[in-house]
Each structure stands twice: as C-alpha cells, then as structure tokens.
C-alpha cells in the first residue's frame, strides 16, 4: 500500500532510461567517446529501477527503506540534471555546426572556438561551470557508485525482512486490500490531498481526484484526463501526487506509469505499459501479441494509466495504443496524460483538461525555502539567506523545477 507520504522514484528512473536511449544521448556518447560508460550507467539504472519497484510498496512497513528511497531520489535528480546537460550540449553542437556551414565568413573563428570546445563544455554542477572531456567518465562513475551504495543498503534490509513481511502485515490492511481488489472500495466525492512537496496545486489535484473516483465520468471508452503546461511547470509532480494517493491506490486494481520518449511508437509504448504492470522485461517484439497480453492483464480490472510527457500528436498511434485498454479494462478505468501541447489533449479527447499556470511567487518561495532552508527556524536565524532566496525565486520566473534546480546548483 502507498500513501501520500510515500517516496516513488521508479517513474523517474524509467525517465532516465529513456533519456539514455535517446538519439541525442547516443550522439553525445559518440562525440565524447563515452559509449561504454553510458552503457554501464544504463545497466546500473535498470538494476536501480528493479530495486525501487520492488521496495516502494514495502516502505510503509520499514522506515529505513523510505529513507533509502529518498537517498535514491537525490541521486536520480542529480543524474537527471546531468544527462540533461549532456543532451543540451549535443543539441548545441549540432545547431552550431549548421550555423557554421551557412556562414563561411565565420568558419575560421568557429574552428578556433571548436578546438577549445572539443575538450570542454558548459556544465552547471561544479565550481568551474565547465567539464573537461577527461572528467566526464568520473561524473558518470560517481552517479553509478552512489546508486550502487543505496542499492546495497536496500538489498541488505530486504533480505533481512522479506521473510517476516507476511507475518507483520496488519489485518486491517489485508481487509482493505481485499476490498480494493474486489473493486468495491467506498468512493470519496471530496478527497483532501496533503503533500509537503507540492505547492499551489491543491485545487488542480482535487479536480483530478474527483474525475478519477466518481462514477459519473464512466464511459464506454476509458476517459482521459490531460495535464497541460510548459516544461518544468510541475505536470509530472502533480501526476505523481495523484498516482500515489492512498485513495487512488485502493480504488484501482492495476496502476501503470509510462514515461513516453519522443521517438516512441505503438510497440514501445505497449511494451512499456506491460513492463510497468508486470515489473518484468518483455522480450515480445510484435505489437499484436503485446496487445493481447495487455488485454489479458486488464480483463475485469479497474486500471489507472499515466502517460507522462507526451510529445507526439499522432492520432492514429494513440488510438492504437488504447485499443487493448478500451477492449478489456473494467468500467471506471482512467488515463492521465501530461503534455506541453494543447493538440495532444485534443486528439486524446480528454474529458478533463488541467492547464497548469506558473506558481505564485508565494508558493514558489515556499518551495525554494523547503528545498534550501529546510525549516523556518534556520531561515529566521539567518535572515540574509531569506533575502538571497527571494532574489533567486524572482529569477526562477515562478517555474517549479527552476526553483529546485537553482537550489541544487547552489549546493553543488
């Protein structure tokens, strides 16, 4: 069972795996000669994803696991921003090369600059704000080592406790889980959501919860709820809050979370959904047997599917993805999509669209304060930090992820 206070890191790890498998990351690895290190990192992330998926449901019974999942989240955040820098560098070099080809008068200057940039590139997370070619493997190795350290601690706890989990399971929890599996959990028309990591989104969360848990939105086809907003505005964070809410956990028989890469197709997405449900790698290559397997899993079950960060507006592709869901998922199932694009919401025929606006300066300030200063006592002891924080918040332009990145950049 998960609650609103639980730590859920597996979707972020899945997103990292998609990043590593992207064309831009492959290009970066080839240009900087680090293909082998990236392959090793991919394997490490796969192991971490498997470990996180197995332990997220156990943290309610072992607070040590929750602390380790928080540690893993910190490493994953660092890895996400680092890979983001690598991808940006690959894109910048590609665009710069195109500009040089178009303007012959700048070619001699550009060649001189490239001699330097062949060895260095801009990197936000060290004091020099630069990363040398020879330093890249150490950065990747550092991320791998941090993940390995957390995984080893998790494995030690799991080995020690797995044999006793069944005996420790509270009888009330058993009954509630049984009710959930029967699909007869009493539905709450007004659910109060409390989460200390989400700011300024309570009304949006309430609106989504109402659509998820109310029977009045049941349709022949599985209804879609879309969360639309610019990059970094908090779409994924809001979806994660909903996904792990205890009312949602008990209401749906099956939950699946898929981070949708920009080069996804029907086969990749279908396989990702199946892997999210089964938590096992699926070697099936053809889409038809994958869809049949999904039908078997969904039959007679109430499903919640989150498709995170959709870019493609290919209507035929998304219709094909939803075929097994509409064919066999039980009435009451729901799909949540997050996207930057209005057109995606339209082609998915969303029955409820949540347009996320920038956070107020007040909420953005609270988010930054929580991340940087920890509590009011420390903030009050050092009023100069509060002033610095207020200035940094203004630079963030009320974007949630910018507040977090600004804080992390300041401590790295």
UniProtKB/TrEMBL annotation:
Keyword annotations: ATP-binding, Nucleotide-binding, Plant defense, Repeat
SUPFAM superfamilies, sorted: P-loop containing nucleoside triphosphate hydrolases
One annotated GO biological process: defense response
Domain NB-ARC: start-end pairs: 213-373
One MF annotation (Gene Ontology) recorded for this entry: ATP binding
Domain (Disease resistance N-terminal): residue spans on this chain: 9-103
Protein known as: Disease resistance protein RGA3
């Amino acid at each position: 069972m998960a609650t609103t206070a639980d730590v859920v890191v597996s979707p972020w790890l899945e997103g990292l795996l998609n990043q590593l498998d992207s064309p831009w990351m492959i290009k970066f690895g080839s240009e900087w000669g680090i293909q082998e290190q990236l392959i090793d990192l991919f394997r490490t992330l796969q192991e971490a994803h498997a470990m996180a998926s197995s332990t997220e449901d156990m943290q309610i019974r072992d607070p040590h696991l929750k602390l380790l999942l928080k540690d893993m989240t910190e490493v994953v955040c660092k890895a996400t921003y680092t890979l983001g820098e690598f991808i940006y560098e690959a894109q910048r070099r590609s665009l710069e090369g195109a500009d040089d080809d178009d303007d012959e008068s700048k070619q001699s200057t550009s060649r001189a600059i490239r001699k330097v940039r062949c060895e260095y590139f801009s990197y936000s997370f060290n004091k020099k704000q630069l990363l040398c070619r020879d330093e890249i493997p150490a950065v990747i190795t550092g991320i791998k080592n941090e993940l390995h350290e957390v995984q080893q601690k998790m494995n030690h706890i799991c080995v020690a406790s797995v044999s006793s989990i069944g005996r420790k399971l509270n009888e009330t929890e058993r009954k509630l889980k049984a009710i959930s599996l029967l699909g007869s959990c009493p539905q709450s028309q007004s659910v109060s959501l409390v989460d200390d990591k989400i700011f300024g989104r309570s009304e949006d969360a309430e609106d989504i919860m109402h659509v998820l848990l109310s029977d009045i939105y049941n349709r022949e086809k599985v209804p879609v709820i879309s969360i639309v907003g610019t990059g970094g505005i908090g779409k994924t964070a809001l979806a994660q809050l909903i996904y792990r809410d205890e009312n949602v956990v008990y209401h749906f028989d099956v939950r699946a979370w898929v981070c949708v890469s920009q080069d996804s197709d029907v086969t990749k997405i279908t396989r990702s959904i199946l892997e999210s449900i089964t938590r096992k790698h699926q070697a099936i290559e053809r889409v038809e047997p994958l869809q049949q397997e999904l039908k078997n899993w969904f039959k007679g079950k109430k499903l919640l599917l989150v498709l995170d960060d959709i870019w493609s507006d290919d209507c035929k592709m998304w219709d094909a993805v939803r075929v097994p869901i509409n064919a066999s998922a039980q009435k009451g199932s729901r799909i949540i999509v997050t996207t930057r694009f209005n057109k995606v919401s339209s082609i998915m025929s969303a029955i409820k669209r949540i347009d996320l606006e920038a956070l107020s300066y007040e909420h953005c300030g609270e988010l930054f304060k929580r991340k940087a200063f920890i509590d009011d006592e420390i903030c009050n002891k050092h009023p100069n930090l509060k002033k610095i924080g207020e200035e940094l918040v203004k630079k963030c332009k009320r974007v949630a992820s910018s507040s977090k990145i600004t804080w992390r950049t300041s401590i790295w």
